[in-house]
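User: Quick sanity check before I run a bigger batch. Here is a single chain. Can you write out its predicted 3D structure?
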Amino acid sequence: MSAHEASGEVAGAGLTAGEYINHHLHNWQIGSGFWTVNLDTVAYALLLGALSCLVMWSVARRMTSGVPGRLQAAVEFLVEWVDTEARGIVHNEESRKFVGPMALTVFVWIVLMNAMDLLPVDLLPWAWQTAQGDHGAYMRVVPTADLSATMAMSVTVLLICIYYNIKIKGPGGWLHELFTAPFGNHFLLYPFNFALQIIEFVSKTVSHGMRLFGNMYAGELVFLLIALMGGAFFSAVGIPLSIGHVIAGTFWAIFHILIILLQAFVFMMLALVYVGQAHDSH
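Assistant: Done. Predicted structure follows.
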């Protein structure tokens, strides 16, 4: 269950509730200003991405035509489900050779990143601080609760959409669409058409990344508040475990599994929809 034993840091380090939350919401960073890099986000995202690819590759390498094992059956179901969704949205068979695996990768990767929220909130930060010998060291473990990560993914989807717009319609065809849709092909309407097209691209990209970030960031905050509740009970009563904390954390973790899967599904489906729209002509 998440936030199982978060009380130790509050009580042991003498942090206030605000300091505790602020500490857990601060990334391990290098650089400054625009060039700041959240190293923990990059590290966990790459690690989980490699893990997802390794698992899928391992299953594909050991796949048999007989009775499949549980893992193979789960992967086959997942692949068929994503392929069905891709077929219903992206009708170009050649494009689906890339778009289908992309959607599958996005879904599995985001599920794994979201699932980091289920770990005890102090477990990996405590291990990191112990390894560093610095109790003030920062470490966040949920990459999708970092806006820079979710916006990077949404911008990548935007670039893929631009690529397919140019590939399917040609540079001239897409440029013509930018200035003639949605109001029509008249030179007086060109500025309004172009402005709306840019607004549409920007709004879809921003909302795509913000939706995933907002939901995961809110879930992270709830886990921290549950951890604080357990820490306060621990300090006041002087027992090693808060029963109320465990119950509250367990119920929220069970509910949060739905959020983890739902947000990965929504991000994947929106990516498919946006890529599918890039294949349509106005």
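The mean pLDDT is 88.

User: Great, the batch can go ahead then.
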